[in-house]
Specification:
There is one protein chain. This protein is of the alpha+beta class. It has 17 helices and 35 strands.
């Protein structure tokens, strides 16, 4: 028996295409979908598709503010079934956020049940919670059934959904928006509606208003959680002018007296999008790590309102200093970014400034007004046509009855006899007998007159642009009256303050002061032990290594390390490795090359001066405050050539400078001849025919020049033989001077 192979399946057209192009085309399609249909809000209604579909679905379910609540599961089911084919949890999360008083400045959903809290607890499952629209959402949807916006088919062509909402409410800036797309993001903080309305009214009156003028009406964001906006007016103005920037927000706090000079600090408002429980946990962790020595305790006494109690370590601690330390170390101060990247009317993403966003809303309202007026005018024209037919019928009622009773096809007969249109004839035939009373005729005439007057006004409105802007002005005033600053919802919550003055926070505010001993080996291993210990033979080093620096310091001190590359590095006393082990290589903490060595290590003393010198015999004096580095790469201070290296780093403690070269010649000169610089190669301290500089020291001429040799100290009182001008060669060292060519 012969067998035949099955024919290959029909897989359609097959094309050869480079993988890079195929992936690029598909990723571009994905990116565009993410940008336009998921992550960026529309500048006109300030909504993303999921939020727009939620509100529209709730309106279709008749969940207006005056109706009862419905289960959130019902709402989510309608949304994902008809409009938004995505996960139910993501849709529910979006609904929850629209209802949270601490997340949305003007909530669009009125929730009943557990919708989460500012501590970061999640909402209850959707089967337990209920929701309906708020008046703000109602304002966003107002007029949607009057052909004010375009509709499009849903994903399965089974329904229609609005492309954008009519939006009587300036939702984009009022509630803000955040989102991350492919290659772009948006971050718009919430603002105060009353201030936005004032800016809109000014922009209608003065279409060329500047950003600076608009910022007078909109001085900054208004967060639902309050707080204090600490940003300079110039920075705020620049952010709104470019559409990009940021705002520094601090917690609101006050001092409560506790008797006997004691006090406590009470935080009543925290920055936007900061979870209170994590904030308290962070402060507690810093306390446990002894990073906040001025703070004794933190307690969360919050109920419906926020109340964080901070207990200072002692009554001598200044509240401002303590809070400044907390602002620097915790989320009691946070930064909210501004990136007004939105979809414009043409669905193209771009960054807009404040004026462009406000103007886009006004243009949208103007278009909505035009479409609503045309829609209403069409309905009035149709109704007036019907009413005119009714009036003709009432004037000829007997004839109408006779035609209806005596004719098999009364419609064409009525149209011919009474000169009625088809619409009018159909309406007359559908009249009920009870409508033939005299009173009905009077009411029809009154409705006809009223609609005729309204038609006249609508025609005027459509022809007169100024009249339309007057109408929009009244709408904005009405919104301001309903949701503005005179209402509990609309009052400004975030206080606007000047940028905070520079409060000096001592390091003790962040680190507990403890005495330590810094032990540094020849091979660059560092460690600390508690207390001020004397040098001891019990200290062990790695094989082949030995001690080099033994320094008494405190955890709040900064240590300065000077390398042979001429760079200064800064080490924090509290960051050095603890314990009696062998410590850690210093090169793990700073960017010091393996081919470079350490010249000196010492505790930073503000206000002191340091002498720096290189092996080529050049050097200068530098202010110690200017050499403190902020990064691990250090700070270049003494510039050295490739064939030279930094050799001397010693504090300035006298009026004379002694320099000795490898040729064992000493030169003593006045320190006044050495300039104070911040960076450079310096000037020539001593001149050499061969070799270079070995050592230099600054000393008090009245006490003589001291050097150590053979375990004893020797002092040269008569310095005349070695005195000379800067840059001279000097004279040979006295008999007994150490062979190491070192003064110490």
């Amino acid at each position: 028996m012969s067998t035949k192979s099955a024919p290959p399946p029909d897989i359609g057209e097959v094309r050869d295409e480079p993988l890079a192009r195929a992936l690029g085309d598909r990723y571009l399609a994905y990116a565009l979908s993410t940008i336009t249909a998921r992550s960026l809000p529309d500048v006109r209604d300030g909504l993303k598709p999921v939020h727009r579909r939620l509100l529209y679905a709730m309106q279709q379910l008749k969940l207006d503010p005056k109706s009862g609540f419905k289960k959130c599961a019902r709402v989510v089911g309608d949304v994902i079934g008809k409009y938004h084919p995505h996960g139910d949890q993501s849709v529910y999360d979006a609904l929850v956020r629209l209802s949270q008083q601490f997340a949305a400045r003007y909530p669009l959903v009125d929730g009943q049940g557990n919708f989460g809290n500012i501590d970061g607890d999640n909402a209850a499952a959707m089967r337990y919670t209920e929701a309906r629209l708020t008046k703000v959402a109602e304002a966003l949807l107002a007029g949607i059934d009057q052909d004010t916006v375009d509709f499009r088919p849903t994903y399965d062509d089974g329904e229609e959904e609005p492309v954008v909402l009519p939006a009587r409410f300036p939702n984009l800036l009022a509630n803000g928006s955040t989102g991350i797309a492919v290659g772009m993001a948006t971050s718009i903080p919430p603002h105060n509606l009353g201030e936005l309305c004032d800016a809109l009214l000014h922009l209608i009156k003065f279409p060329r208003a500047t950003i600076a003028k608009l910022v007078e009406f909109v001085p900054g964001p208004d967060f639902p959680t309050g707080g204090i906006l600490c940003e300079s007016p110039e920075a705020i103005r620049e952010a709104y002018a470019s559409g990009r920037g940021g705002f520094r927000v601090r917690a609101k706090w006050a001092v409560e007296k506790a008797g006997r000079g004691q006090y406590r600090i009470v935080v009543s408002e925290i920055p936007y999008q900061v979870q209170k429980s994590r904030l308290v946990e962070k402060i507690a962790d810093l306390l446990s790590a002894r990073k906040l020595p001025m703070l004794a305790d933190v307690r969360d006494e919050s109920a419906d309102d926020i109340r964080l109690v901070l207990e200072p370590r002692s009554r001598s601690v200044e509240p401002e200093v303590l809070m400044e330390a907390l602002f620097r170390a915790t989320d009691l101060e946070s930064r909210v970014s501004l990136n007004m990247n939105v979809l414009d009317r043409g669905r193209a993403p771009r960054i807009m400034n404040l004026r462009e966003v406000l103007q886009a809303f006004l243009d949208h309202r103007h278009e909505v007004l035009l479409r609503r007026s045309r829609y209403r005018l069409e309905r009035i024209e149709t109704r007036l046509e019907i009413l005119a037919g009714y009036l003709v019928a009432f004037l000829n009622i007997d004839e109408v009855i006779a035609i209806i009773r005596g004719t098999d096809e009364p419609k064409p007969a009525l149209m011919a006899r009474l000169e009625l249109t088809e619409v009018q004839a159909e309406a007359v035939l559908n009249l009920r007998l009870r409508s033939l009373r005299k009173l009905e005729e009077i009411e029809i005439q009154a409705e006809h007159d009223s609609l005729s007057a309204e038609r006249k006004e609508l025609r005027r409105l459509l022809k007169d642009k100024d009249l339309r802007w007057t109408e929009i002005t009244e709408e904005i005033k009405d919104i301001r009256e309903t949701f503005g600053g005179k209402t509990e919802l609309g009052r400004r919550r975030t206080e606007i303050a000047d940028a905070p003055a520079g409060v000096e926070v001592p390091l003790e505010a962040m680190v507990e002061r403890e005495p330590i001993t810094v032990i540094f080996s020849e091979k660059g291993w560092v460690r600390t032990v508690r207390g001020h210990a004397a040098p001891s033979e019990d200290i062990k080093y790695k094989e082949g290594d030995r001690g080099r620096f033994w320094i008494h310091a405190e955890t709040t001190d900064k240590l300065l390390l000077f390398g042979t590359n001429g760079r200064f590095y800064t080490l924090a006393g509290d960051k050095l490795p603890r314990g009696r082990g062998q410590g850690e290589p210093i090169r793990l903490s700073i960017d010091l090359g393996n081919d470079q060595d350490i010249v000196n290590l010492f505790v930073h003393r503000p206000g002191r001066k340091i002498l720096l010198a290189s092996t080529e015999g050049r050097g200068f004096v530098v202010e110690e405050d200017s050499v403190v580095a902020q990064t691990r790469s250090g700070k270049q201070v003494l510039n050295v050539r490739e064939d030279a290296e930094a050799k001397v780093c010693t504090p300035v403690t006298g009026d004379l400078l002694a320099v000795i070269g490898e040729n064992r010649k000493i030169l003593v000169t006045d320190l006044a001849e050495i300039p104070v610089m911040t960076r450079g190669r310096g000037i020539t301290l001593q001149r050499y025919k061969d070799g270079g500089l070995s050592d230099a020291i600054v000393f008090d001429g009245g006490q003589g020049l001291t050097f150590h040799s053979g375990g004893r100290a020797h002092t040269i009182d008569d310095l005349a033989p070695w005195r000379g001008k800067r840059g001279n060669a000097g004279r040979l060292a006295p008999r007994g001077f150490p062979r190491s060519n070192k003064f110490t």
